[in-house]
């Protein structure tokens, strides 16, 4: 059985707080955040001691329309620099590459970019393309992570083969991605053990990206960290797709490392998240809870929320029929 890495009072230097507010939150409003919002968020993350900030996706404009999506879906160099300048801080900047939507030909070398890390999001059937993108980004000088999505739908042997293949790549961090918000802490412990065994043997770290369908994103993040995960994904007030993510303010308030500061996060919430909550809809709700319990993609729940459908029994019956 895997052993805990320290106690709840420990400070682990390998732990990194990874903010995904703009990237995951952008799925709620098609990345239409104002420069003022993104700049204020960047400054809050720096002041709070956050280690990495994922400022959006680097989707190719040739694949998705710039008329429909805001700049943080594409993360052009000039847009990022408009917010962070040369980023003369201790915090690193990341962007996410979706397999099938991001083109390696458009990724400039690291020395030409203020971005530090490329995060690759992939489904299992896309793994060969993901490995190709990992190696390209690594060769260009970037740190890399990989999120293998929807692993709650994977068979055990299939996931083992995926991890074995990723262990042979140059990727720096392999993420446990609870895409449907369906995992419980006991399952997270088993996954952490599985991922860590592969990662440690190949000199890699593991991370956790949790969704909050069952109100367990925070608990699952703490559980993964306790058993050895180093990279911990968070968003301010849980702002993210569907039921949202592990709230940054919860994790910052829990971690014992004095480098992390809660007050800048609270300031940002007061000034920017409270008004945003009047415009956008995210976070735990009964439809998201039901898709999480059934280990299903939250698309039906998103539709129900958009339509303000509160006929929860009928919604549940429909899910059971599918």
Written description of the protein model:
40% of the residues lie in helices and 14% in strands. The protein is an alpha/beta fold and 322 residues long. It is globular, with a radius of gyration of 19 Å. The protein starts with 15 loop residues before the first strand and ends with a helix.
Proportion of residues in β-strands: 5-15%
Choose one word for the global shape: globular
Topology as H/E string? EHHEHEEHEHEHEHEHHHHH
Distance between the termini: 37 Å
Number of strands: 8
Please give the structural blueprint.
Elements: E1 16-19, H1 21-29, H2 35-48, E2 52-57, H3 77-84, E3 92-98, E4 117-122, H4 127-139, E5 143-148, H5 156-167, E6 173-178, H6 185-201, E7 205-210, H7 217-226, E8 231-234, H8 248-254, H9 263-276, H10 286-293, H11 299-306, H12 312-321
Parallel strand pairs: 1-2, 1-8, 2-3, 3-4, 4-5, 5-6, 6-7, 7-8
Keywords:
single chain; 322 residues; alpha/beta; 8-stranded parallel β-barrel; 12 helices; 14% strand; globular
In short:
The protein has 322 residues and is of the alpha/beta class. It has helices at 21-29, 35-48, 77-84, 127-139, 156-167, 185-201, 217-226, 248-254, 263-276, 286-293, 299-306, 312-321, and strands spanning 16-19, 52-57, 92-98, 117-122, 143-148, 173-178, 205-210, 231-234. The protein contains twelve helices and eight strands.
């Amino acid at each position: 059985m895997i052993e805990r890495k320290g106690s709840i009072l420990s400070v682990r230097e390998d732990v990194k707080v990874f903010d995904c507010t703009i990237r995951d939150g952008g799925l709620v409003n098609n990345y239409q955040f104002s420069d003022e919002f993104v700049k204020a968020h960047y400054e809050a993350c720096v002041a709070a001691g956050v280690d990495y900030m994922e400022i959006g996706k680097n989707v190719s404009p040739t694949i998705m329309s710039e008329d429909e999506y805001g700049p943080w879906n594409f993360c052009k160099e000039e847009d990022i620099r408009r917010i962070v300048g040369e980023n003369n801080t201790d915090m690193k900047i990341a962007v996410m590459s979706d397999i099938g939507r991001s083109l390696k030909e458009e990724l400039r070398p690291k020395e030409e970019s203020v971005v530090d890390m490329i995060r690759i999001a992939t489904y299992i059937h896309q793994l060969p393309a993901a490995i190709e993108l990992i190696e390209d980004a690594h060769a260009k000088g970037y740190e890399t992570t990989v999120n293998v999505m929807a692993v709650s739908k994977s068979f055990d042997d299939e996931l083992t083969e995926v991890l074995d293949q990723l262990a042979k790549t140059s990727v720096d961090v392999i993420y446990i991605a609870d895409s449907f918000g369906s995992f419980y802490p006991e399952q997270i412990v088993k996954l952490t053990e599985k991922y860590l065994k592969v990662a440690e043997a190949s000199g890699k770290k593991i991370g956790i990206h949790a969704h909050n369908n069952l109100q367990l994103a925070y608990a699952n993040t703490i559980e993964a960290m306790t058993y050895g995960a180093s990279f911990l994904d968070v968003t301010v007030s849980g702002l993210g797709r569907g039921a949202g993510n592990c709230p940054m303010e919860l994790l910052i308030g829990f971690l014992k490392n004095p480098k992390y500061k809660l007050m800048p996060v609270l300031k940002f919430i007061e000034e920017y998240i409270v008004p945003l909550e009047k415009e956008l809809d995210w976070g735990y709700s009964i439809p998201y809870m039901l898709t999480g319990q059934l280990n299903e993609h939250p698309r039906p729940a998103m539709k129900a929320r958009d339509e303000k459908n509160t006929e929860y029994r009928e919604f549940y019956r429909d899910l059971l029929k599918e």
